[in-house]
Amino acid sequence: MPSPCLFQGPRSPDQVHGSLLVSWATLIVPLVVLFPCVAHAQSAPDPDLRVDRTALGDTVPDPLEALSAELMAEHPQLNSARRITAAARLAVDPAGSLPDPVLGVGLSALPLPDLDISAEGMTMLALEVMQEIPPRGLRTARTEAAVARAEAAEARERVTAWDLRLRLAEAWFELLLVSEALTVHHRTISSLEAFSRSAEAAYTEGMAPQADMLRAQTELASLEEHLAELRQRRATALAEVNTLLGRHVREPVEASIPSRLQVLVEGDPGVGMLTTRLEDAELGAGFPTLAELETLALTHRPELAVQQAEVQVALADAETTRIERNPSLRLSGGYGLRSGRRDVISVGVSLPIPLFRSRKQDRWVEAAVMEAEAAHFNESDLRRRIRREVAEAHAELVEAREQLVLLQEGILPQARAAVQGAAAAYRTGEGSFTGLMETQTVLFRSEIQHAHLTAGVGRDLARLERAVGRRLEPEMLP
Known about the structure:
Blueprint: H1 13-34, H2 63-74, H3 76-90, H4 92-95, E1 102-108, E2 124-133, H5 138-204, H6 210-245, H7 259-266, H8 290-300, H9 302-323, E3 329-338, E4 344-350, H10 361-427, H11 433-468
Antiparallel strand pairs: 1-2, 2-3, 3-4
């Protein structure tokens, strides 16, 4: 009978994907016994589970991509990141400007104790203006640091966008999984109802025991329980999608297989797929190879852009610190108004004396250089991690796609044919109801596994795109 363990409460996408290996093994064992030729089956894909390729043209919008565009337009996290980027851009021009001039006003040489400004000829009202002139190159270095910080903020904005895009894709494919599982349950219920009517008719005519009719009714009740759980999971996934989009949590969302995902599943297999040899496999179907994906990731991954900008910030800060060892020049000019005597003017130049340069300014320079070197090492480490993440995501997608193709083009047609044969044999009295229910159980598990694998391939494709930092399409070039 359909196993209740297939649905045991809400699970995260990672848990669902991780359970595939176990459920796949439990599925293959009975199938190998029932269908020894399934591993080499080359039958046509089931039309109920395939989308017409003629309907996948460029004129057909990708529903998930349309929702992603809506997400990118209005999500609060992205709006916050955009404001941070705008603020960093606004800070570029002030970073390289001259310091503000200083205006001073005061009385000097005021006699005591009477404070009479006319009693002393040196008493005057003084006006003074001072302007600091930074060392040569300092303003340029500060501007470069501000530009690099703005670029880092913009790259972090892209990181936020990709994180949100992945969250939406995972919720979308969870919704797709549950929707397809609901379809499988309803289709299985229709079949069990027909089997139940056949068993009841056979029991009425004295051709079958009452146990056959009771077993069919028990299976129907079990599936009804699963439907309640699936509805709850669908409500959770729907709420996640709508929350990301800023909609009401129950606003309807119709999940369907994105066209490029269908192209990936239906396309020609890549090198190393669907073979018994242990070799590195590629996606095929016009999608980039692993080497091309690594090149794309090292070009488009937003975290790498953040780290590269951090390197530029560190280098600019080190240059700023080096230049700041040279003293700034301070120019001053003043005008003095005196009572009973001629007014006077004054000019002056001043600069700090770096008496402790070796213990202060030089140490700051050394520290800034070390921070720049650390930023370089971080960038090198990030490149390694990006390659690993791309390789892992690629391997998971290749594995999920291969399992889906094997199930879709081999196991499912065989399972459907077995149910039809068992049903015909039971109606003619040549087969047992137990055999019929066993084949129906295999078909049910296969179709549920198909829903899991379809959603798994979609999630793995979304995770690979996140690892690369670019939307992947067939026939892409790096």
